[in-house]
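Side project, low priority. Logging it here so it doesn't get lost.
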Amino acid sequence: METIYHTLLPIYDANSRILILGTFPSPKSRAQGFYYGHPQNRFWHVLSTVLQEPLPASIEEKRAMLLRRGIALWDVLASCKITGAADSSIRDPVANDFTPIFAAADIRAVFTTGRVAAKFYTRLCGSGCICLPSPSPANCAMPFSALAEAYRAILPYLLQPLP
């Protein structure tokens, strides 16, 4: 296995209030040049449902929805050895540097999209996070309604008034 490097820029601005982290971009996401690019991944559908927003179709619509709603988005790992999109195959993980995001924004909570991302964030970054269920097609046994209900955990952090 060769080392693969993360090539997607983080999405955030000064108004970001939460940070949602995946583990590492899938081959489809890397090819598309944006997060959660696999057509069967439920991330964008779940997020738009929870936020009561129209389902974004383009990369620009996705980016705009995130920033408009105070959501920063990135992945835990900067590089790793991985087979396909299987998080279970990850070897030699190296974490991204989250300092610029925390310096620029008042991040009130860090969420991960799955247990593997939570494990790497906690282990490599030494910080806690709130683990959401994976929206991946590999987690299709979880009904959409249950997935959306779990993702509602982000709402209180977005609805808090600014100081």
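Brief comment: The chain has one domain: 3-154.
Revisit when time allows.
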